[in-house]
Amino acid sequence: MNEKRDFDKAALSWDEEPRRVKLAGNVAAVIIDTIHPDRTMDVLDFGCGTGLITLLLQPQVKSIVGVDSSRGMLDVLEQKVRERGLANVGTLFCDFERGDRPAGRFHLIVSSMTLHHVPDLQALFRLFCDLLQPGGVLGIADLDAEDGSFHDDPTGVHHHGFDREMITSLLSKAGFVECSDKTADVIVKGSVPDTREYPVFLITARKPSWPPPK
Ligand SMILES: C[S@@+](CC[C@H](N)C(=O)[O-])C[C@H]1O[C@@H](n2cnc3c(N)ncnc32)[C@H](O)[C@@H]1O
């Protein structure tokens, strides 16, 4: 359970699973609709994987850096960036659990389907708050609380989804304000009549501007 999943091994075939591509498309669309990223923004995608979400946000923003602790995932993203000749996409190999942290400050941090692989969410949310510009926005998508049936292989899964209020409370403790949540997608697994539904939330929050508004 505490072992890390080997995402390097999964990287080359990651995008071949239609469910993942569909989910990333729906999450990116809800991020765009809710947060309205624009061409003034420097963005960080934490746990970017092969960049499914990174590359959907790329045309909307000034720059976006995909951060991941899997070299294999980043290799796939880098190849896409080269093939498309994109000048505003960067990648960064970084595992914050080992004390790594990206340099710079961002207007927006997004993360999709990565939180459940991170044991210490409070430390991660503090890091996110630190990495954001004052007034910067966070958008995190992950599974609602589930019974452990979502992952066929539980290696590296530290949380069976999340209670949205628990996430909001951790975000507030980390210094975020204006937390709000919505359902970004519903993943359907299994085949009829044994289908199961796994809702995915998008929680957004803002780092307060400084000085705080009176
Ligand atoms: C389930 S994948 C999601 C990938 C991508 N966001 C998507 O929607 O397709 C989770 C990703 O988080 C990365 N990851 C897990 N723990 C991490 C950590 N501590 N620091 C950085 N990346 C991490 C993994 O390497 C993997 O690429």
Write the layout of secondary structure elements.
Blueprint: H1 7-11, H2 18-35, E1 42-46, H3 52-57, E2 63-68, H4 71-84, E3 89-93, E4 106-112, H5 121-131, E5 132-143, H6 164-173, E6 177-189, E7 196-206
Parallel strand pairs: 1-2, 1-4, 2-3, 4-5
Antiparallel strand pairs: 5-7, 6-7
The structure holds S-adenosylmethionine (SAM).
Describe this structure in words.
The protein is an alpha/beta fold. Helices cover 30% and strands 28% of the residues. It is built from six helices and seven strands, in the order ααβαβαββαβαββ. Strands 3-2-1-4-5-7-6 form a seven-stranded mixed β-sheet. The longest helix has 18 residues, at 18-35. The termini are far apart. The model has no long low-confidence stretch (mean pLDDT 94). Bound molecules: S-adenosylmethionine. S-adenosylmethionine is lined by residues 7, 20, 24, 47-49, 52-53, 67-70, 73, 95-97, 112-114, 117-118.
Shape field: globular
Overall residue-averaged pLDDT value: 94
Low-confidence stretches: none
Bound molecules: S-adenosylmethionine
- Number of continuous helical runs: 6
Structural class of the secondary elements?
alpha/beta
What radius of gyration results from the CA coordinates?
Answer: 17 Å
Q: What portion of the residues fall into strands of 2 or more residues?
A: 25-35%
The number of strands is 7
Biggest sheet, open or closed, and with what strands and sense?
7 strands, mixed
What sequence of helices (H) and strands (E) makes up the elements?
A: HHEHEHEEHEHEE
